[in-house]
Amino acid sequence: MNICSSHNIGCAGKFILLGGEPSIYPHIREVIEFLKSHHLETKMFTNGTGITPDFARELALLKNHRQTIKGFCRTCEKSDTCYGCRGAAFQVTGDLLASDPLCWRNPDNLTPPKLNGVGPG
Fold first, then answer.
1. What DSSP string describes the chain?
2. Does pTM surpass 0.70?
3. Among residues 63, 86, 102, which one ends one of the domains?
């Protein structure tokens, strides 16, 4: 299948780069640029391992993460350097782009339950 014609078989022309750590793939810049040049919406979820200052600047030119993250994490005062835990967001809400439901800064955060009567919940 030609990735550029994926919409012909029902794909929405959106690609999510994840699994392992996509930022350490040596050709990730080329992959992102290729998808962008074909007007294919691309999201990359990363823990930042392979993000150098230069790569971060390149990514910032492509897309502002504040436009994709939902809820509190989008407007948090720390959003320039943090966008919450994507894993927690997905596990708790089923939505990778939801605000981090466990972040102490999030006013809607979930309080961990008490275990045997001990804990903040």
1. --GGGGGGGT--SEEEE-SS-GGGSTTHHHHHHHHHHTT-EEEE---STT--HHHHHHHHHH--GGGTS-THHHH-TTTTT----HHHHHHHHS-TTS--TT-TT-TTPPPPPPBTTBS--
2. no
3. 63
Containing structural domain, residue 86: 70-121
Sequence letter at residue 63: K
6-49 per-position pLDDT tens digit: 656 666 667 778 777 888 888 888 888 888 777 777 778 888 88
Residues 58 and 90 in one domain: no
Per the structure, the count of domains in the chain is 2
Is the domain of 78 the same as that of 106? yes
